[in-house]
Every structure is written in structure tokens, then in C-alpha cells.
Protein 1
Amino acid sequence: MTSPAKFKKDKEIIAEYDTQVKEIRAQLTEQMKCLDQQCELRVQLLQDLQDFFRKKAEIEMDYSRNLEKLAERFLAKTRSTKDQQFKKDQNVLSPVNCWNLLLNQVKRESRDHTTLSDIYLNNIIPRFVQVSEDSGRLFKKSKEVGQQLQDDLMKVLNELYSVMKTYHMYNADSISAQSKLKEAEKQEEKQIGKSVKQEDRQTPRSPDSTANVRIEEKHVRRSSVKKIEKMKEKRQAKYTENKLKAIKARNEYLLALEATNASVFKYYIHDLSDIIDQCCDLGYHASLNRALRTFLSAELNLEQSKHEGLDAIENAVENLDATSDKQRLMEMYNNVFCPPMKFEFQPHMGDMASQLCAQQPVQSELVQRCQQLQSRLSTLKIENEEVKKTMEATLQTIQDIVTVEDFDVSDCFQYSNSMESVKSTVSETFMSKPSIAKRRANQQETEQFYFTKMKEYLEGRNLITKLQAKHDLLQKTLGESQRTDCNLARISVSSC
């Protein structure tokens, strides 16, 4: 004889589920830690850039002063009598002209390095300060969004646990009722067999009084059989009721299982990417691009001969790419961001029906539920699409704010015929206090509205994902059920 199949016990199934949920919870915690770490590294990077340019501004200013002292030292000599003689001549000697041009160039370089120091202190460093403030603020909001999504995901997992426990309970009741029904059937068979044997033994050979006793005994046996039949009918009804509850509970479990797997997949594949792309990195790369382009413009206009050395920096600025950074981050922490294994159906006590039951008496209920889901999905998709359009329009506004091309400082290096540098307009444009206050107020107000719509869109997409998974599974099951019914009908007609 073959040994009976070994089924997982309730405790084993729950333990496996708890282990899988704990692994996901640990991943979610590590994700937040990883993003926290990236934020700290970003803040440190921006602080290092500020310190670097502050020190470089001091060096440029010292260099400018030294150049000015150098030029003044030799220009003082040109004010002597001999120099005045040279100036009276109509044709200045070419070596003297070269010397004068060289000294004028030193003075020009002194002015240029003063301008460069001013750009570092009053333009580039404030930009990094602003990027740092924006990054911290946006990361805090992003963390709230991410935490909300993680809470929603854990809520879905808890709901799946509750539905699975309910399925276990009803399936256990169904198995118990089935066992009691079989026991009643055995008692009925035993009582009927006993009655038949007694009737066969008792032949009509005795007087009338003995016949009356036999009739009375026969009546008692029939009464006992009827009691057993009534008990069997009650147990049959109880089994039918519990079996229906078990089928419905299993259907709910399978639907919840499909919705949970869809939600987990969406979170790991779409939500994490969206949080990093559209929340954590919102404007960061573009703002850093602008700040470094300001530096490039200053350096390239200061000295074209340095162009070869600045190409590497320009190339790095050109390659500031949020998508590549995100991909690199997720590859570095692949074990944290990779989706977990899908939740599989865990059969309970030999219940191997891992598909939705679409036969009567639950078929009409499933059809009605599928129609209700379709109607609700249509409404939700329209509403969520409107929210998405508003969110995308707001995102475009934010991108327009952080991608404005205001990094060109070439005007700071334009010179008149008298070799005087054109007055820097840095303080009057980008870094003017009224302009900053207005831009930042508009930017933060737009950001607040964007994050509100972002949360609304993600929550709506979460709900649509769960409902769509349930609807698709119902639709697929009902379609297969209809095809099976049609085939059975054809077979019945052909046989007639």
C-alpha cells in the first residue's frame, strides 16, 4: 500500500508565510536605510563642494592680489623720466610695447581672478547651499511617500494572512463535517445490514403472540434507522454548508493572493523606481548641472588654454544622469531592490484546487463581482488618469524651474577698449534676494502640490492594480468555465 500524502500543517504554512513576510519587511527597512545613506552622501558631497569652492575663492583672491602687486611694482618704473621719454616718441619700440601689453595683461588677469572669486562666493556656493536644502526637504517628503507605500504593502500582506487563516478555518470545518457525514453513512449501512440479518433469521413459525413481539421489534429497528437517517441528513446539510463556505474562502484567498503578488511586483518594479526618479532625485541632477555649468563657464572664459583640462569636468557634467545613477544604485544594492519570490498557493489538508471555483452555486456571484470590479475599475482609471495628467503638468513646471539655463557668466569676462571689466550682474540676477525669495516660494508651493498629487496617483494606482488582478483572474476563470459548459452541452447533444 502506498503511504498517504503528507500535507503541510497549519503551523508550517503560517511559519513559511511569516518567514517570507519578515524577509520582505527586512528588505523594506534596508531600502529606507539605503536611501538615507544616499541622502547623507549627497549632503556630504554638496558640503565638500562648498568647502572646495570657498577655499578656491580664497586662493583666487590671493592670486589676484599678488598679480596686482606684481603689475604695480613694474608699472611704477614706467613713470620715470626715461619712460616719459619713450612715451613722447611717436613710435614706441616693439619690446617696450610688448612689455606694456604684458603688464596690462597681468592687471587684466588680476581683475579676472577677482571676478572668478566673486562668482565662486556669490553664485556657485549659494547654488550648492540651495541644492542641499532642496535635497534634504525633498528626501524628507520622498521618505514619507515611501513609508506610506511600504505601510500599504504591509497592510496588503496582513490582509492576505487574515484571508489565508479564514480559508484554513473553513476548510478544516469542511473536512470535519465530511468526516462526520461519512461516520453517519457507516452507521446507517451497519444498522440496515443488521436489520436485514435479523429479519432473515426470524421466520413465521410461532403463534400470534410471538408474531406481535416480532412486529414490535421490527418497529423499533425501523425507528432506529429513521433516527440515523435524520442524523445523516443533518450532517449532509452541515457538510454542504461548510463545503460552500470553504469554497468561498478559498476563492477569497486566491483573489487576495493574486492581488498581493500584483501589489508586491508593482512596488518593487514601479514604485521604488518612481520614488527615486520623481521624488528623491527631483531637480537634484538638474540643479547640480546648473551649478557646475556656472563653474565651467567661469573657468572657460577665464582662460581658454585650460580648456583641455576642463573637458573632463564638462564631460562629467554632461553625464549627470538621474536614470544612470538610479540604475547604478539599484545594481549596487541588488539584494535590497530585487523583487521577492511570488507568493504561491498553499493547499490546506489536501485541498489541491488551486484555481477559482466558477461552478454553481458561486458562479453567479463571481459574474456579478466581475461586473462590479469592471465598473469600478473604469471609474478609477478615468479618475486616476486625470490625477496623472495634473501631476505630469506640475512635474513639467518643476522641471522648467530647475532646468532654466542661467549658468552662463560670459558677460562677466567682457571688456571695453579701456580694458575695464564689465560690471558683474550676478548679484542683480540669479542671486538677488527678491528674485530668490519669489522663485523659492513658487518652487516650494509647486512641490507641495506635486507631492499631494503624486501620493494620490500612487494610491489610486495601488488600488487599480489590486482590483485589476482580481478582475483579470475572475474574467479568465469565468471564460474557461463558459467554454467548459459549451463543450459539455455539445457532447450531450451529439450523444442524443
Protein 2
Amino acid sequence: MLLITEPHNSISLILSSQQFSINMSSSELLHFFVFFLSTAQALLRYLLACLFQLNRASVLFFVVDAVFSVYFWFCGLTSLTVDLDDRTTMHFWTSTHRRFDKPNLVMVHGYGGDARWQFLYQVGFLSRKFNLYVPDLLFFGKSYSNRPDRTEEFQAGCLVEGLKRLGVDRFSAYSISYGGYVAYRMAEICPKEMMEKLVIVSSGVGWSDEVKIEQIKKIGRDPKELLLPTNPDDLRLLVKLSVYKGKPLKWLPDFFLQEFINVMGNNHRKEKLELLEHLLSKKADADLPILTQETLLIWGDKDNVFPVYLAHQLQRHLGPKSRVEIIKDTGHAANIESPDAVNALITSFVLGHS
């Protein structure tokens, strides 16, 4: 019995000791885990508080900006960057799968945000009809050059070269506002076999020095302050001048608008200002070329930036290969106010439908 009992008691003591040891280890481990979890939670709470209080505008803006990029991807577009040389880079959104039964359409944006923010209401529809090439003009979005040239001719030359690098040898172009100046010069340097048709929406191409001065006086503000706003009030005023119907920025808080200015407006602000100074100071082109391409001019009848009579004036200059289409109850930003009407006009014109 003794031989049996003693080992049993020893085993019991050993098991009790091991159980106590295990219990002690589990307790220490639990305390360590609780301490680690509490510390991590406190740090996370602190970081979130800082993020919300100090950078909430940045977070909201970049979320919206990312959503726009995802939407472009959902519409079948891919982001590409083309180095033209060691000093100039152009960024494009291009159709991921180019189809040879679709014509190519280049979409040239105006002042404001980059191409995504200006063509958001159009790429969904137009991507079903065309192979799209949507560039950021130099100093907008991801396009940049450290060359000193600020002319529309330089922008046009870089854009045409970028398209060549992408293998685009035939295309039509749709342009708005400042983009109209650039696209007009593209049509000038491209043979008709390369650039087939041109659409210009609400652009001051061909306006005289007198009309320019008159419009600046009518607006009552320095155009550079409006087109490159530094505060939410100026941005709202710019949108009010551009849009006839509704108030697109009514529900957007100031901190979000300020972040839009900080990211979009202040990105390459110096170069954008130089683009504007060149455009406003240059004399009217007395020898504005008459284009060989068929040209469609689309205008809102309530355009307060470039009055509708400029459309008819440009049409008379271009002659029988051009025509004017006026959209009712629409201001300068026809691409935002009346995208369906603009899309339908572009499609019927480029595809040759009546």
C-alpha cells in the first residue's frame, strides 16, 4: 500500500503544483493581454480624435476623390501616365479595352478640378459609345511640366504628342471652356485625317479684346481671384456664375470646400495663375485659323461667362462646316447642368446621326 500510496500522493502534489503554475501563467497572460488591449484602444481613440478634429476635411475629400477614381474604373477607364520627355508628364484616363468598332473621343476639360471632377456626369454614357481618352491638362491633376511655356499651343502640342504615344492616330475631340482654346489649337496642328471632328462647349475662342474687357467689367471681379479661389465664398461665387439652375454647393460645408481649394486649386497654383495671366493678357488673334474639321458649338442660353452671341460669332468665322446648338435654361457649366443634352449632341454629331 505504501508503495502505491506514496506515488499517488506525489503525483497529486505534482499535479496540484502544475495546476497552480498554469493558473499563475494564465493570470499573468490575461493581465498582459488586457493591458495591451487597453493601451491599443487608448492610442486608437487618440488617433481617431486627432484625425477627426484636425484632418476630417482631408479625410472626407480624399474619400470622395477616391470614389470618383473608382467610378472612372467602373466605367472601363484606366489611369495612365505618359512621359513626353524628361521635363513633361501627362496623365490620361483611357478606355481599358479599346474596341475597333468604336470611334476615339478625347475629352478636354476646363479650369477647376481635374478631368474626373468635370466629366463625372458624362463618362458613364460616353464610355459606352466611344473609346475615351481623358487627359489632365498640364498643371491639373497629375500632369506637369517644368518648361516655361504657358500657351494653349503648348498645351495642345503636348496633348497631341501624348495621344501619339498612346497609339491614337484618329480621334474626335470634345472640349469645354478653357479646354476649347486648347482643342482649337489641336485642330489647327492636326490634319483632318487625324482629328476628325471637334466639339466646343462654352468657350471664348475668337472673342475680341473689347468683348473680353466688357465681360471682365460685367463680372465685377478679377477673373484670377474667381478662377483660382482661396476661400469657400469665392468658390461659391464662381459656381453661382457658372451654373444657372440650382445651388450645387448649398449643402457642402466650408471645411470641405476649403480642402477642395487646398488640394485642387493650390496644386501648381503658380503655374495655373501664369496660364490665366497669359490668356487674359494676350491680344485677340486677328488671324484665327479657319478649321478644316467639322465643328459643333454647344452653348447654354444663360451663359454668364461667355455670352451666347460668341457661339454665333465663332460659327460665322468657321463657316459652313460648323453649326451651333443652344441648350435652354443652362449656364456656362453645361456639362454639369445639362449632361444628358450635351452627351446626346456629342454622340449624334461624332457618330454622324441626324
Protein 3
Amino acid sequence: MATTKFRDTVSPYSKPRPSPPPEDYLHQKYLSDLTLKQDARLPVLKLALFGVGRAGTIHLSNIVANRRVKLVYIVDDIESKWASIKNYWHLDDVIFLSSKQADKVYNDPSIDAVVVASPTFTHEGIVRKALEAKKAVFCEKPIAEDDANSVKCYETARKVGRPLFCAFNRRFDPSYSSVKDRVRNGEIGHVHVIKTVARDSPLPTLDYIKTSGGIFHDCIVHDIDLITWILGEFPIKVAVQAHAHIPEIKAIGDYDTVVISLYFPSGTLGSIDISRNSAYGYDQRLEVFGPKVSSVNGSWGKTVDSIAPNLLDVALEL
């Protein structure tokens, strides 16, 4: 009976219907689908996908589920997979090409954009050729294997007037962006410690690791970007310990386990814990610790404000 005094005697149907909160973007998408709402500013885009491996399969899944795009070409050099890919995804009208036949994509004026998810060493060539053919480009990181050629790709994009998009995906995850906003709003005051954990599952294949650029180039860049993005500053001291527990990874001169310590000009301490092989599943975590009490509960992931009010924590275990 203690809460009956708070009972609302007015029916919710007699009140103005509230709009869903902006965080509920899936409901907004559902409303558009339900009402068959069309926007003339959003035409159907014709795409070509380069590479159907680890990242390419994720992009392919999103492409076939998006009514705003039409996949016209898939470029992949493992021809033995073509029939299976076509049958699994019902791609009866999609044209499969090898990289030696990729000029058909560049020379096709109907193609609006290309998605680049092929091995790292191929990115720059595909990006440059696609841009020069006046195609928009979405590219998995990195665009090129060094800074100078990455800059040249963006210069080409400006010259031809086509977008070139390459970014760290975690910045677009609501869990991480929510923590960044809360930190920048001062909810926990000056950040004393920021930590990330990133552990792969399943263990990537050796074929992938050999062409990935290595654990620092392939994995740890995400965590470095995430931490510096949230803090808005770069470290002035970095200490690294790395080891290869898996002999096949050691044999190719790479590592499977890395711990990094970061010291920032403001006094913030950072740590990064990386593993290529997580036996319990894919694990991505971020923790931000500071002296100020936080009273806002996050909408995604896990927050532990009720346990430790000066801690913001997001755990994504998939």
C-alpha cells in the first residue's frame, strides 16, 4: 500500500501520445516499415562488395537486409565459395568476379558505391580505382598500409568529389558513445583511470592473421582510438608487454596476448588488455573511473552506478 498514493488517476489514453526516446531507434525503424514510409531523398544505391571473409560477411548480411541498397557485384578470389555464397544468401541476380575482373565494377556507370572488405594489402588499390571511377567508397580499416598513401586516398576523394568513409566501428556503438557523452558531460569528474578489454572469439585463422597486419595494427588500434576519443587527449608515455602463447602465431612474428599501460598529460592512467583467443566467448569491455558521483543509468550494456557511483562500465559479451 505504500505506493498507492502515487497512483495516476488519469488514463494514459487521455494524454498526448509520447514519442519513443531517441535511443529506441529500432522502434523508429519499425514505424517506418509499418507505415511504408518512403523518403524521396533516399534512393536505392547499387553496390559492389569486395571480399566476403570475416568482415565482408558482416557487410553482406547488412546489405541484403537493407531495402535501400541493391547488390550488383561481389568480388572475391576464392571461386570455390561463389556457389555456396549465392545459394545461402539467395543472390541469383548478383554477378561474381575475381579481382582480375574488377575493372567491370569500375567501368559500370550504374554502380554508386563499393564496400571494401578484402585483405588489408589490397585496400589502397581498390579505393583509388573506385574513386577515380567516381564511386563512393566504404572501406574497412586501414585504407592503406602507411600514412602517406592513406592521405593520397582522401585527396583523391576530394578531387573527384566522392565520399570515402573509413572509421572505427566502436564509435558508433550506443554503449560506447553513451559513456563518451557522460564523461564529456563531467558526470564522473576528471577521469582517473580508463580501461579496455578486447578478446577475440573464435580464434582467427592463421591465414587471416598473416594478412591482418598484426595484433597491434589489426586489433589494438580500436582500443587506442576508443580511449583517446573518450578522453580527448593522447598519451605521452606508453609501456607494452606482449607474448605469443600459441606457437603458430609466434612462428609468424606476431603476438596473441598484449597489455598496454598509458599515461596522459592530464594525469589519467589507461590500460588495454588484448587477447586473440577467448575461451568463454567474444568479450569487449570499457571502464571509466573518476571521483565524482554519477546518478545516470545507462540504457545499453551494463552500468554499475548502484555499486560504485564513480564508475562507468560497459560490458559487451556476445
